[in-house]
Amino acid sequence: MRRTRGFAAILCAAAVMTGCASTPEQAIVREKSGQSADSYKEAGTEEPVTIAPSEVKPDGAEADTGQESASVGLEKSGASNALAARLQAPEKYEAQVQSEDGAFTLDCSARVDVPAVDKISIYKVGQMDFSQEWIDKVTEAFFGDAPVYNGYTYNEMTKDEVLERLNQLKAWQAEGNTDPYGYIAVARESGIENPEEFYDIQQDIDAWEQTYAEAPETTERTAVKPGLDGGFQVSEDGSDSSVNNFIGMVEMDGQNYRYQLKRYTSMPMIIDITNYGNDKARFPSRTWYAVDFAGGQETAALTGKPASWEELGMTEEKAEETAGITPEEAQKIADGYMEKLGLSGDFSAKNVMLSLCTEMDENIAGQSRYIDAGYQVDYTRDIDGFPVTDEMQMGGGLESMESTLETWSYEKIQFTVNKDGIQHVEINNLYEIGEQQVANVELMTFPEIAKIFESMLQIQNSDMTYSKGKAFDIDHVTLGYMRVYDPGADNVSGLLVPVWDFFGKMVDYAVYEDQEYTNVSAEPTFSRLTVNAADGTVINRELGY
Question: What is the pTM of this model?
Answer without folding.
Answer: 0.85
